[in-house]
Amino acid sequence: MSIINLENITKELIAAKKIAIAGHIRPDGDCIGSCTALYLYLMNNCHELGIEQVDVYLEPFGEEFNILPGTDKIRHSYDYDESYDLFISLDSSSLDRIGNAIRYFNSAKRKISIDHHITNENYADVNHVVANASSTCEVLYNLMNEDKINEDIAMCLYVGIIHDTGIFRHSSTSDKTMEIAAALIRKGINFTRLIDETFIQKTYTQLQVLGRCLTESVLLLEGKIIVSHISKKTIDFYGLAYTDLNGIIDQLRTAKNTEVAVFIYETDFNEHKVSLRSNGIVDVSKIAHLFGGGGHVKAAGYSMVGTVDDVIIKLLPQIKAQLT
Ligand code: 5GP
Ligand code: MN
Ligand code: MN
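ok -> structure tokens follow
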């Protein structure tokens, strides 16, 4: 991990006139919050920094995030014919996580990665990875000048932090995280609305699917593992986007006496996305990394070609090995 500070990053920024920002595929709250926060920050200070253009690229995401300022400026297509002085990747631990934004990464003169994943592969010219930070939004907050964080930027950073900490419940939450949250609240944000509208509220269909996934879950390895799965056929039947499945893994994880929760959904024919959560003993980032994915000790994921049975047959011995 290369250690950099605000001055280093500022130097990169000052040299750049045209900047692209991108997060990871299937963006989550931290990814969307960090992208919009950085976009607003750079745009607000573009004269001082000599920036002429900032574009943000993200795959489509749930409409609950449209509450965040700056989301209306996000480009959801990668067909723009652009090349950039600087590409800033946020919340993305490896190049395959960047998805179609890779074309702008490849053609950019300089590349920065700002992230908090322990599995970050240091793929950029400058890699600012703070593995003990709760979220990329927390990392970004520490890189920003506090005086330049307005209410809009504070909203974005706050949403990123609450999503990656499960509203300050996960062990990644530190005293520093709470202090940053307090500083963001002092900017005047309506934090209860942000929590309710982006995290708590579910559509009726989302609730139905959650119920179905809980009902169809199974316990394995003497109740140490809870597993649930949803097929593409069912996802299509309900007309769901992948973001409608957010939160299911966190409900599975609450099953008493389980060590690991596994949620598997079919993304394409014979292709599955796997989400893993650990209650402490098992390091799921190691397992996800083994299968080409990544994440954190207690929350990680990967994609795999094969049937759901293939996924489970390969996964179980890895979890078992860490439980014994
Ligand atoms: P989730 O299960 O909520 O999709 O992801 C949990 C954590 O694992 C997040 O920090 C996310 O960035 C990481 N993660 C999930 N899927 C993948 C993946 O396919 N590749 C990598 N590198 N990280 C992943
Ligand atoms: Mn993320
Ligand atoms: Mn994150």
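The pocket of manganese (II) ion (ligand 3) is lined by residues 30, 91, 116, 135-136, 164 (CB under 6 Å).
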